[in-house]
Every structure is written in structure tokens, then in C-alpha cells.
Amino acid sequence: MNNPIPWFQHSVRESLEAQKTSIAHGLDVLEAERRATEFGLNELEAVQRKSALRMLLAQFKDLLVMILIGAAIIAQILGEAQDTIAIVAIIILNAILGFTQEFRAERAMEALQALSTPLAKVRRAGQIQTLPAYQLVPGDIVLLEAGNFVPADLRILESFQLSIDESTLTGESLPVDKQTHSLSAESLPIADQKNMAFKGTMVTAGRAVGLIVRIGMNTELGRIAKLLKEEVEVRTPLQNRIAQFAKKLSLAVLGLCLLIFLSGLWRGVEPVLMFMTALSLAVAAIPEALPAVVTMSLALGARAMIRRNALIRKLPAVESLGSVTYICTDKTGTLTENRMSAQAFYLHHKSFASIPDAATQNPLWNSLLRAMTLNTDVSLNPDGSWQGDPTEIALVQAAHDQGLVKEDLEKASPRVAELPFSSERGMMSTVHQSQDRGFVITKGAPERVLPLCQDIMGPNGLEAIDQDVLLKAIDSMALEGFRVLAFAKRDLGLHPNHLELSEYEQNLTLIGLVGLIDPPRSEAKEAVRLCQSSGIKVVMITGDHPKTAQAIALKLGIAHSVSDEVMTGQQLLETTDEQLLAKVLDIRVYARAAPDQKIRIVKALQTKGEIVAMTGDGVNDAPALRRANVGVSMGKGGTDVAREASHVILLDDNFASIIEAVREGRKIYSNIRKFVRFALSGNSGEIWTLFLAPFLGLPIPLLPIHILWVNLVTDGLPGLALAMEPEEKNIMHEPPRHPEESVFALGLWQHSVWVGILTAALTLGVLAWAYHTGHAHWQSMAFTVLTLVQMAHVMAIRSETESTFSLGFTSNKYLLGAVLCTLALQMATLYIPSFNSIFKTAPLSLAELGLCLGVSSLVFFAVEIEKWFKRRRRVG
Ligand code: ATP
Known about the structure:
Structural class: alpha+beta
Shape: elongated
Radius of gyration: 35 Å
Bound molecules: adenosine-5'-triphosphate
Strand content: 15-25%
Number of strands: 26
């Protein structure tokens, strides 16, 4: 299918012939498969992923680890080989641990990215299918509409006011209007190829049918793909803060290790041993694992969110979700089911709750039902269900139930032109030509359609419009929660083609009104209540009528009384930024708001210091989604453009899923804090122990291998198992965390210091007692106490406030398993003879072991008392 002549020179027919396909049928499934094998996937070359080996080697790049390995080898030359082997073994284990964490984080991120592949609507074997864009092949017939990304390079076959933003390719930010005629120039720059659409550009308005002529790396985008290959790694604020903190702490630890080294030398300890001790302490106490663990927790958390129907596109969102204070949400489809049905009608000053029998016999009803059918872009699936916008499906279905067949009507009065729907216009028109005459049908928001009408249809011909009566009818329908649409028409006589497109929507005749009901989602009310109990305010922003919006807001508990502030798009337009700032915190509903007004609302709320989650599904929602702290787009109903701009995609378009994601975000953050608390307290315990010993006239408490071991068992399983801690019960009863709040706030670092000092006191206390009472195993005892203290501590910090007794010891099975496993390993170092020689330990007597266990458990009770004070303060 190589084509030496540029595609833009081909006519529509020639292009279809060259690709051996047709508009109505598309490719057959087998042919599409054959072409997929021949041409490959419609993908740009993947960004190079980090190889596992590179990740593993990176673990050894740390300067300190290298020095430690060097020192271990020197030690071997000077002394025993066993020491070296043991130290190197532990370093390798540490590296494997670090590698596993990083590897899992990386793969989890990749899996997330794979899930957000864009989709495209294609016609194959005569049927419209939605397929992942990478499966498309040359010759596929693609349907485009506003908000779509163009999935491959296309020759445009049919265009209805199509306009495309090609700034990704051309840098030109103004959208380009497209058409279908062939162009005769020899060569044309991309910007002038008006009958082509290019991969990666986006449809800003209108709709079109296109033929794929190039895919993957052969597209214009593919040609410049090399420029896009650089992957920018986005770090979350938390990752940044932790990385900075880890750096500072590392310097402090290095300083302390130097001090410990010098004080050892001063006391006459063998320099090599002292050097190894100080170095091991540095390796153990420098929190190099922290950034990786944070990334892993965030990435795995993001994966867990998929189960709650929130797909995280940008990692920082996991964190921001936890501190959201405002959720601004669309109504249709998010708070409501988007399953509309037509249940109210208004024709010639009379209201109806349903369509009367034999309505088609009545000229007024007949006009309305025909308009409801013809003025829609709905199509019938082979299984008998409808495909299209739910508002329009409801209209077509209602007419269909009266025996109107869309296909027949369209055959008799084919559509010859159209002015497509957009949220900004709030209406749409179609122009039809039957055998003897042409006519226009317009439907849309009553405020948009009524001013265009000069009269109304009555049983005996046209009548003058009584605006007051009509407005009352509209209001009363809207107050009951109906979405109200007005229908109008215009006869064009024999020759409909004498008018400009923009002239069609003039001098219309109103046919009537239709009210559509869209039931609120059953879970939405509870989700709104949950928001309120957790300090999050919910605001509804809708394109719908203010009364309709208010009725739904009252039903869901977003507004509590009719007097609750509702602002319309028009009022917003007339409000200055300063005036908006004064009111913005009180407004619960924005109605008839245009998507591009959302950004003003986000900005105003953010100026007030609020953290805003904003939902959106259309092209014009993109700036607000980008600007919001958490931009939320829709997986089912939304456009590609909105998805691309968002941080989170709701897979089920459901408001309740946002709250679930907030809940998960809060949990992830609180578990990260638990890990940080655990790791820092452990490190601080090791440092205090080694630092204080000489000042108390005690020998070096631990050998290098002991220090490395304690680090391994604490940073290892138990630390990771903390990330699996189930959510705390009042997680959704607390106000949102301030985003600027440090991870170390709320007493985290104070906790690490005092627990560290207590650890040192207990370890050194046991050591001093054993040393002075002539127990030969004083070092094994100190080593055991230091490890067991970590286990006691980890069991106590599973919640920042709740008692472990009320949480239950078994509620985190992973943690319980990790603790038992670590205990078993520690016993192995004491009681397995070959380990004794590696770890320089000796089996403790039962009394000695009992003492170690008893003393270590004091940390558990001490932390329980700390939490008791915290609970009391909270109640007070
Ligand atoms: P929400 O903002 O609550 O999600 P929405 O996105 O459905 O609502 P829009 O799609 O912007 O709101 O619709 C705005 C208004 O345009 C509707 O209230 C309705 O009056 C009108 N409208 C919606 N769909 C159509 C359509 N297919 N044809 C004509 N008019 C429509």
C-alpha cells in the first residue's frame, strides 16, 4: 500500500480504492488481522524501559556501599575471611531488597500507563467498534468527533465542520478547519493539508469520517517521535521532600559516624574494627530506602485504586487526593446515571406525563416525534441497543416506542447539512431534504432555542408565542429535576440550499418541549455525605438549567435549602474576580455554566487556599483539569483530550469513585508515614546505641555484621508489611491534611528521637548489666534486644492513635507474618551453630532470652502510652 502520490492529492474515491476498502463496510476482520501482521502495531517506539540489570547494578552505586565492600575486602586481607563473606552477603541481600522495591515500583507504573491507552471508533465489517488505537491498520475507517485524538494519519472522507488543533505538529495553536476535496499542489506543509488529519492532533469541533493511510512510526508524528522519546520523570511533592530530607539526614549520620570512629580511636579500639563499625552504621542508618519505598507505596497504591475504579495517570495525584478540600463535579453521568428517559412533554400550552396513544395521528405530536428522531446522531447496534449520547437515545427511544423507525425517516428525509451540538451553544440543528421540500430541525436548551422562534405550532396552524406561559412551563419541569429540551423547525420550501449555514437557525417555529429524567446514582448521596463528614465540600457544575440543577443538588444533599447559593454561567460572566472570591466558598451549584468557566472557579478556590478536585469530560474542560490539584476525567463518557489533561480517570464515571480514591489516598499517605516513622526510629535507635556506649564506659555494643543485620531485618519485611496496613477506621472522619504539611509533622520526628533513645537505653542497659555481671554473651544479648525492640515497635505504630489491642494483633496478617519470620531469623542467628560463627553470637540461656524479650517489649507499651495521650488530647 505504498503510495508515491501524496494522499492529499487523491480524491475520496481514489483513496478508498488505493486502500481497498469502503466507507460503509470498512475492512473485514480477517483483512484487518492480515494488515496488522503486515504493518505492525499503530504505536510509536516505546520509550526505553529501565532494564532489570541496570536497576540491580544501581543498588551498588551508592558510594558508601562501595566503600563498605572495599573495607570488607581489606578486612579479609588483614583478618578472617568469614567476616568479609558475611558482610558482602548482607550487602547483596540489602541490594536485592532495594532492587525488588524499585522493580515493583517501576512495573506498577508501567502497568498503569498501559491501562490508559487511547481508544478509537472504527467501522469494521459494517459495524462500529471501539478499539485500542494501537490495533488500527491502514485502510481502517475511523469516526472522529470533538474531543478525540486522531489515532493515525487519516485522509478525511466526510467532514461536518471538522476543526483540528494541530499544535503538537505545527506549533500553530489556532484550530484548522478541514474539508474533503483533493488538493492539487505538488507538495504541501502539514498545516496546509486540509483534507488530512494527523496522529496525535486533536479534534476541537465537529465530526468526521477518515481513512487511515499511515500508522505508527510512519505517521508525521512518528517522524518526530525521537523528540518525544525523552521521558520526564515527575516527582511528587512527597518524593521531593523525602529525597531532600534523606540527603540532609545522610550528612548528619555521616558526621555522627565520624564522631563515633574518632571516639573509638581515642579509646584505643583497633582502627580497622572501628572503621568498619562506623561505616556499617553509616550504611545502616542512612535512609537510602526511603525514597524508593515512597515511590513504591505510591505506585502500588495507584494500582490498588484501579480496583476502586480510579486510574491514576500522574503519580502526584495519589498524594493530592488525600488533601482534597473541594470536589467540583459534573452532574450528568457522574452524580446521575446518565440513563435518561423522556417523561414530560409540553405541546401547545398543555403538559403531558407520557405520550398519548395514537400520537402519530396527531399532527403536533407527529412533528415532535419526527424531530426527536431526525435531529439525533444515534445509531442502532446489531443487538438492538442504541449507540450515542444518552440524551438523544432517550428521545429516539421514546419515538421508536410509538412506531417511528429512524432509518425509514432518514431515508425519506435525508440530512443534507448540520450545525453540530456543542456545550457552548447548548443546541444543534439538522437540515433535511424530502422529496418535495427542505426543512430545519433545531433542539437544545430552551433559553437558546426560544429567542430564535417567531411562533409556535398549534392545532390550527401557527400561533404567537406567549413567553411568560412558556417560561413558567419550563421552570416547573426543571424544578422537578427534568432536563428540558426545546424543539423547533423551519420550512425551507423547495430549495433548502439557498441559505448560508448560519442562517438556518433563524425564524424558527417552536414545536414543543421534552423533559428528560436522569435518576441520581444510588451511591452518590452516601458519597456526598461521606465528603461532608471528612471536611470536603462538594460543588456541582453543570450545563443544565439552574432549577434542574438545584432539584438534583437538593436530592443528593449538595445543597440543603432552596436558598443555597446557585450561580448561573451568565452571572459568573458578569462577576469580577474579586466579587467571585468573596462568594466562591458559599456557592454549591453552578448551572448553565460553560466548560471554559470552570477554570475561573478552580482559580478562585485555589486563591482561597483550597485543594480542588475537578471533573470534566469535554475538550474545553482540559485547562481546568490541568489547573486543578486533581483533574478527574471520565473513562467511559469523556473525550481523549480531557483524559490526557487529567491526573485521574474514573473508569466508571462515578462520583462515588472519587471519594473512594480520596479514601485510598489518605490511607496510602498514612501508611507511608508509618513506614517513615518506623525506619527513622530504628535508625535513630542504632545511632544512639553506638554513640552513647563509649560515654557510658561500655565496649562497642555491636559488630558491623550485627548493625547491617538489624538494618536488613527492619528495613525489610516488617517495614514493607506496614504498607499493607488496612485503613484506620476514622480515616474519613478527619479533616483533609494540609498539602504543605511535612511528613514529619504531628510529632513524627520527636517520636523517632525518643523511641531511639529508649531503644539505646534498653539495649545498653541489658549490655551493661550482662557485661558487669560477667555474662559472656553480653554482645549477643544487646544484638537480640536491638532487633526485638524493632519488632515491638512495629506492632505498636500500626496506628498513630488507636491502640493495637483495639486494632487486633492479627488484622494485618502480612505484618504479623513478617514479625514472626524476623523473630525466627533472629533465633537462627543465636541457636544455629554455623550462624554463630558467622554472626559471632552464642546461644542464650532461656533466662537471658526471656530477659531480652521482656525488656524489648517495653517499647511496645511505651508507644501504647504515647497513643493513649494522643487519644485523650483528641477527645479533649
Ligand atoms: P453536566 O454539565 O451536568 O454534565 P452536560 O454536560 O450534559 O451536563 P451539556 O452537555 O453541556 O451539559 O448540555 C448543556 C445543555 O445543552 C443541556 O442542558 C441541554 O439543554 C442541551 N443539550 C444537551 N445535549 C444536547 C443535544 N444532544 N442536543 C441539543 N441540546 C442538547
